[in-house]
Write a structure and sequence with these properties.
The protein is mostly helical. The chain has helices spanning about 1-25, 35-40, 45-55, 55-60, 105-115, 130, 135-145, 170-180, 195-205, 210, 255-260, 275-280, 285-300, and strands at about 80, 85-90, 160, 230, 240. Helix 3 packs across helix 7, helix 9 crosses helix 13 and helix 11 (about 255-260) packs across helix 13 (about 285-300). The longest helix is centred in the N-terminal third of the chain and has 25 residues, at about 1-25.
Length: about 300
C-alpha cells in the first residue's frame, strides 16, 4: 500500500514537472530573428514620422503636460491606471542610458511587435504590441529611425506598481498564449486597396481596438466584440461602439474622415477625453489614410 502511494506521488510530481516544462516552452518569449528585421531596408525618416503620428507615440511617451516641441522629448513618466495596478510609461528617447539609444532595430522591433524586451523578458501589454504585431518591418524600421532624430532625455520612469500575481512577468507568457496574435481582427473578402489600408492602420499601428474593444477579466479582448465599445479607462462614461451598428452608424465615410481631421462631429460636437490626443495625431495623416480608416469602419461586421 505504502509503495503504491509513493509511486502515485512520484507520478504526480513527474507529471507536474513535465507540465511546468511544457508551459515554460509554450509561453517563452518568442522574438523574431535579426534576419527578419533586416528586411526593413533603408530607413525612410519621413515615413517614420507618419507612423509615429499614426501610432500616437507622443501621447503616452511625452513628459506629462508637455506641449509643442517639448512633446517630442519622449521622456516617459505618464502613469496609466488599470485594474491591475499602475503602469509607468518608459523613456523611449534616443538617450543611450535612460532611453533606447543603444537598442538595435531587432530589439526595438521585438519590443514593439512581440512584447519582448532587450533582455529577453516579456513586456506588459500596456505597450499595445498586440496591435503593433501587424506592423510591417518597413514601418517599424522607419519609426525607429525617426525616433532616433528626436531629442534625448535622461529621465528614468519609476517601475510599474503591480500587485501579485500581476507583478510576475513569467505569467505574461500565459497571457500571450491566450490572446496574442498577428492575424487580422476581421476577415474581409474582396476588400479593395483603400479598405486594406484602413484595416492595417486601425488594427495595427493605430491600435484603435485597445480602447474601443471590451476586455475580459484577464485583460484580453472579448471574442466577437471588435470595436463594439468599452468602459472608459479614465473612469467616466464609455468608449463608443464604432462598428456600423454603433454610435457612428449614421455617419458617412466623409463624416468619419472629417472628424479625424477636424475633431468635429456631424452634429458639430467636438472630440473629448483621450480622443482629443488621438484626433490630433490622425489630423497629421494624409487625407487618403483618414479616408481609408473610414472605409474600413464602414465594412466591418455590425454588432
Amino acid at each position: 500500500m505504502a509503495g503504491r502511494l509513493v509511486k502515485s506521488i512520484g507520478a504526480l510530481i513527474g507529471l507536474g514537472v513535465i507540465g511546468a516544462g511544457v508551459f515554460l516552452v509554450v509561453t517563452r518569449p518568442q522574438p523574431l530573428p535579426d534576419e527578419y528585421w533586416a528586411t526593413a531596408g533603408t530607413p525612410d525618416v519621413k515615413n517614420g514620422e507618419l507612423v509615429f503620428s499614426m501610432g500616437g507615440c507622443v501621447s503616452c511617451h511625452k513628459k506629462p503636460g508637455a506641449e509643442g516641441a517639448d512633446a517630442l522629448v519622449l521622456a516617459g513618466g505618464v502613469t496609466i491606471d488599470s485594474p491591475y495596478g499602475k503602469f509607468h510609461v518608459p523613456n523611449i528617447s534616443p538617450d543611450e542610458k535612460a532611453g533606447i539609444g543603444n537598442w538595435t532595430l531587432a530589439q526595438f522591433g521585438n519590443a514593439v511587435t512581440r512584447g519582448v524586451g532587450p533582455d529577453g523578458s516579456h513586456l506588459y501589454p500596456s505597450l499595445p504590441y498586440g496591435s503593433y504585431s501587424r506592423m510591417t518591418p518597413k514601418d517599424v524600421g522607419d519609426l525607429f529611425a525617426y525616433i532616433k532624430t528626436l531629442p534625448k532625455s535622461d529621465n528614468v520612469a519609476p517601475p510599474h506598481e503591480l500587485g501579485f500575481p500581476y507583478n510576475m512577468r513569467l505569467a505574461l507568457g500565459g497571457w500571450k498564449w491566450l490572446y496574442f496574435s498577428d492575424a487580422p481582427r476581421v476577415e474581409l473578402a474582396n476588400a479593395d486597396a483603400t479598405v486594406k489600408r484602413g484595416q492595417y492602420i486601425v488594427e495595427g499601428p493605430g491600435h484603435c481596438g485597445e480602447c474601443h474593444t471590451p476586455r475580459d477579466e484577464l485583460g484580453g479582448f472579448k471574442a466577437g466584440q471588435w470595436l463594439s465599445g468599452a468602459p472608459n479607462p479614465e473612469g467616466k462614461g464609455k468608449i463608443p461602439d464604432i462598428t456600423p451598428g454603433g454610435s457612428v452608424a449614421s455617419w458617412s465615410e466623409g463624416d468619419i474622415a472629417n472628424y479625424l481631421e477636424t475633431g468635429f462631429t456631424p452634429e458639430y460636437d467636438t472630440a473629448g477625453g483621450t480622443m482629443v490626443e488621438v484626433q490630433k495625431n490622425m489630423a497629421k495623416l494624409p487625407k487618403e489614410d483618414r479616408e481609408a480608416i473610414a472605409a474600413y469602419l464602414k465594412v466591418i461586421p455590425k454588432l
